[in-house]
Amino acid sequence: MKDRYANRKYFIMALAIAAAAILIIRLFYIQIIDKTYRTSAANNVLRHITQYPARGLVYDRNGELIVYNQAAYDLLVVPVQTSAFDTARFIEILGIDMKDFRDRMKAAVSYSRRAPSVFMKMISSEAYGLLQEELYRFPGFYVQARTLRKYTKPVAAHLLGYVGEVDDKLIAQDSYYKSGDYIGVSGIEKSYEEQLRGRKGVNIFMVDVHNNIKGSYADGRFDTTSVPGKNLWSTIDLSLQEYGESLMRNKTGSIVAIEPSSGEILALVSSPSYDPSLLVGRVRSSNFNRLQADTIKPLFDRALMASYPPGSTFKIMNGLIGLEEGVIRPSTLFGCSMGYHAGSLTVGCHSHDSPLDLPGAVTNSCNAWFCNAFRSILENKEYNSVQEAYDRWREYLVAFGFGNKLGIDLPNELSGFIPARSYYDRYYGKDRWKALTVISLAIGQGEIGATPLQMANMATVIANRGSFYIPHIVKKIGEVGGPSSVFAQKYTTGISPENFEPIIEGMEGAVNGGPGATARGARLDSIIICGKTGTAQNPHGKDHSIFVAFAPKDNPQIAIAVYVENAGFGSTFAAPIASLMIEEYLTGKIKRKYLEDYVLKVVITPDGKEQ
Amino acid sequence: MEKNSNILNRLDWLTVLLWGTMMIMGWLNIYAAVYNEEYTSIFDMSQRYGKQLLFIVAALILAIFVLVTDNKLYYFFAWFIYGIFIFLLVLVLLIGNEINGAKAWFELGPFGLQPSEFAKVATGLALASYLNSKRQAIGFRTMLSATSIIMAPVLLIALQPDMGSVITYFAFFIVLFREGMSIYVFISALLAVVLFLLTLIFGTVPVALGLIILSFAALWIFIRNLQVLMALGVMAGAGALSYLIGHYLFGAGVDVVIVAAVMLSGAVYAWYLYRYRLKMALIIYTFLLGGILFLFTVDYAFNEILKPHQQTRINILLGMEDDPYGTGYNLNQSLISIGSGGFAGKGYLNGTQTKFKFVPEQSTDFIFCTVGEEWGFIGSVVVIGLFVVLLLRLVMLAERQRTTFVRAYGYGVFALFLVHFFVNIGMTIGVMPVIGIPIPFFSYGGSSLWGFTILLFVFLRLDAGRAEYLG
Ligand SMILES: [Zn+2]
């Protein structure tokens, strides 16, 4: 067999020899010629001290500091470098007993004799001071600086979130994190973790047998500098947030306030809450377990994660959609005889003037009017079927941000629920359902669910007469960076601006009108507030009180949604709370002390009792 | 029985000895790398060295199993085995376990198996079988088919994505070279690798300019006549003109302008050379053009295809991006531990760097750190020497075959070992990007040890049966 290419074996063998030669030359260089890799004395050891950068600070929209850092110190040990020392003095400094000392030492040794491990986390500042002076007496031990969160006020726990230790799963996924590192676990701390954390650095020192640092290894050639985290400016108004939390104390529910012109969230209250400093440092895990076990669920962020039926506030949506679809006009009159009656079906109403036009129906929150309107929407002859009309109706709601996550820059937002056509098809059979089957949607009851954030966003859309920006919690990152560009994108809802006017007129009437107005308790003399009450049916107890509003009527500065669980009608508590929030934000001081006192004093327990 | 004793007589014991030595050295180094005074028994099965011992025993059994198999099996079932592994590579994408961001593992009880480690054997067999069926020199079509045999597993592995394994498959081009692939193509490929690294260091434009200058220097050396000088003038003029037009009329970036200039001036130049029948100049020009096109492809591939952490790894190697605590940190730690080994090393189990757990993956991809730190320059050279002996022995064995099939397979084994050996040690000492591939027989891990063992012993089995007629 002829083999014309047999000579190529020499070339191939040369490749292998060349590869080996390159490696050997390089090894010769780094192992023999270059001295930087060798420690000057044989018994010197290298100590890698991680430089943990300061985590970014968080300010409110007015530049007021909310979150900052405090120094903390971890005591580390390299077991193989320890030698006999005055353990009595050592445990005295740390304030631990001999058994504790032995247990910690054993744990460190079983991790590794040669690698450093944390002997004691977050030692007190007194212990740190003493140890600094006497460290030479305790070879093998050294202190590493960390930072812990500190809060200027005990508020905004849910939106700020907390910082915890990384778990093994995350360490496996992301090479940045090492065992014992901190990471944002919830709230802003989580969603802006990458900006807040900065970048770790490491300094390598040579240490002699007496635990003295002999200097930087290789003149710092292998050191890396840490980069501090970026500061964040939140959209929150800290004093409004604080005020909202005080109003909600001893009640369950939430407040979401948004600046309509920007989508910036002014306040995001969830009650019951907790002091964010409870979840910092050594007490974090015990406090966390306690909070998690608490039956009133203080860790649960109701503003983003609770979904309620929107109740009568939803009549606004049906009014807007009816107008846009052309099936009702502002002047359309429907009568009401204590409710809506169709065959055997009755949706009850309270007593009020009859018949009413659209603004009047909003003001009086007439169930019959909106049942008629909703039926007109679904039985619109423009569409081939009720189902097709329903699809269109749902599209409007989705455009308002219902049924999907809005995309706020906080973790764990709930999407709420607006049933798709298929949901009813499955329930009643394909196309076997009619407008009357789903009539409870007319007054915001039934299968639908929306979060307080979504309701506040609805109030924003009305204030803006048809558009919104995705609600967000951070307005500036670092000295120059803005938030994500998605928050600068204007969304429109497909409802013409003029169709908002009769609704707004009705909302104005509800707060400021005469007899029949449902939310007169929210009235402010100096500012026109437009609002709508609602009551979310609660199968487990007393109904939830809801109020959505914006103010002033022209050029609105604030849109708000307030939920008070188990408080009954929307006018009872939610409306006054929203009104006080608006007064506080727009005027900076509360004139209606009696109203404020009334709200502050009330305690509403989950079974609906007022005290 | 007679057949088996026959095999023992014909088996290349030198290679077997090298294989055994390397496995034992690897095991001792894994012990040193994860050494902890609390668990000192080298047979402790809860530790990596204990598990590696199990892997070694299993590798022995595998080796025996391969040796007692009829060698015709590998010949006749080459395509079948290849098909099975292609199927497994598809399957692992669908139902595999994700570890470190790559869907590369089948979970089998406590162990994970990486089909890509074994698919190398199958690819080597299929490629050898294909080349064996071609009696004539490798033409363009053969080359294309052979390439697709290599690329099928490569594409599937790239989807996992496991770029380290992908790179090793390119070793098979050494087989094609030995079997008659155009020397120009092979040299181009080698140059491409060098260019790739240079581009990453110096950037696209300087390397492109360097290539142009180099080509002209080569032209001058080869031809030395007036026409070349005139051609240079024409080319420089055309290049400058197209640069000006491109830059000022169309506002194109420097990159685009260089490509345009080379293409345009090249057309003029090629015509000129064609008239004067200067073949060498044409070849040089083709290399130049190919080189520049390649540069921009690399640039694109680097920025658009590689994942950020891979980009960073390559960047760190080249000192382009300082990413502390990420990959640069690993390389630094690796350099410190190997460099601190000095001439004679710190002695077995006396290494400090690796035991501080500063070096990541110290028992798998970075096992050479332990060798360098504890055994020093001497130990490193011994390990490298072992590999060189093994590699040269493989070439010798391959060359004594009577069939293209066994020879081509043997070169496949050689090529894979060469790439793993060079890239792995190279990355720990900073002459190669940090690409996570194991070093044969040293790195911790069952899949890689078994994969390499099967790879090697299939060849030894074929070699032992070389007297029998195959194909
Ligand atoms: Zn009514």
- Annotation field: number of helices of chain B: 19
Poorly predicted runs of chain A: none
How would you state the average pLDDT of chain A, rounded?
A: 88
Query: How is the largest sheet of chain B built, in terms of strand order?
Result: 1-2-3
Please state roughly what percent of the residues of chain A sit in beta strands, choosing from under 5%, 5-15%, 15-25%, 25-35%, 35-45% or over 45%. Answer: 15-25%
Q: Provide a count of the helices of chain A.
A: 20
Question: What's the count of strands of chain B?
Answer: 3
CATH topology of the largest domain in chain A: Beta-lactamase
What CATH first level of the largest domain in chain A would be assigned?
A: Alpha Beta
Helix and strand composition category of chain A? alpha+beta
Poorly predicted tracts of residues of chain B: 318-327
Q: Largest beta sheet of chain A, briefly?
A: 6 strands, mixed
Work out the helicity level of chain A.
25-40%
* Shape, principal axes of CA atoms of chain A: elongated
Whole-Å distance between the termini of chain B?
Answer: 24 Å
List the quaternary state of the chains.
Answer: heterodimer
* Rg over alpha carbons of chain B: 25 Å
How large, in whole angstroms, is the Cα Rg of chain A? 32 Å
Number of strands of chain A: 20
Considering DSSP H and I runs of 4 or more, what fraction of the residues of chain B is helical? over 70%
Distance between the ends of chain A: 105 Å
Short description:
Chain A has 611 residues and is an alpha+beta fold. Chain A has helices spanning 8-33, 87-94, 98-111, 125-134, 157-160, 168-173, 187-191, 193-197, 238-248, 284-293, 302-305, 315-325, 358-364, 367-378, 386-399, 421-428, 452-463, 500-512, 574-587, 593-601, and strands spanning 45-51, 58-59, 65-77, 117-123, 141-151, 163-165, 182-184, 201-207, 213-216, 232-234, 253-259, 264-271, 339-342, 345-348, 467-469, 474-477, 490-492, 530-536, 544-551, 558-564. In chain A, the strands form six sheets. In chain A, strands 2, 3, 4, 5, 10 and 16 form a six-stranded mixed sheet that branches. In chain A, strands 12-11-20-19-18 form a five-stranded antiparallel sheet, with helices on both faces. A three-stranded antiparallel sheet of chain A has the order 1-8-9, with no helix packed on it.
